[in-house]
Amino acid sequence: MSHSAHPDRPRIPDGESRRNVVAKWLFLPLRWLYKLWFAFVFFTSLVVLYVPFRILLYRPQRYVRAFRLKRRWAGFLQWAVGVPLRTRRSSALPPPPYIICCNHSSYLDIIQMYNVIPDYFLFIGKYELLRWPLFNIFFKGMNIAVNRGNKMEAAKAFRKAAQAIDRGTSIAIFPEGTIPVHTPRMKPFKDGAFKLAIEKQVPIVPISFLDHWRYFGEPLEIMARARPGVARAIVHEPVSTAGLTEADLVDLRARIYRIIEEPLLQP
Hints:
Elements: H1 15-57, H2 63-80, E1 85-89, E2 99-102, H3 108-116, E3 121-126, E4 144-146, H4 151-166, E5 170-173, H5 192-200, E6 204-209, H6 212-215, E7 231-235, H7 249-265
Parallel strand pairs: 1-7, 2-5, 2-6, 3-4, 3-5
Antiparallel strand pairs: 6-7
Helix pairs in contact: 1-2, 2-3
């Protein structure tokens, strides 16, 4: 009886698929060596910088200096872990404040954002980041942790972001909310970034990270990708929200999605 007569029977992979599976297992030790190197470089350098960061993050007046140190750290990390970034800019960045929206395909996105955007900005990140040892110092006061599972807490976080914009500070948001399991395909965008941009009438700067998903997947997944390589980012032209109202939110969200997605679909 043919295999097609048994839909529940596992499909026997063809020759090319078998070779791919074998290659994945052969390179598995190298992937884990790279993950260990990545973790060593990241946490060792953070331990070295922890006291300077704690001093700078103790007072809000020092946050800009902490941001500058973060940029130097990110510049070091991209070379130390072997993922240097090439950035293509469609136009100059607008004067701050603005909202930065980009696809989220890897934890590398967080590091590389500091290598892409020179202007002082705050991250809106998931609430779970407060549980990360050492790294959580950045979300206890400077950046903004949002608990999407609690509407009151989420609203409080976005009010904090709105106040930062009022002070002239840009905001960086991953509108997908989390890293999708089917990356590089994106998840639907959440509304928060676009409500905030319309409410404050500030432009949105879309960014496409093209390669991070290839170089660093979920750290604890056995077969997740992990290797060095040159990454690419595209900083698209700013999208104005001047004159837009909440009635334009869906169209704005769809427009930003298309802008970020278009280069991801190209081979």
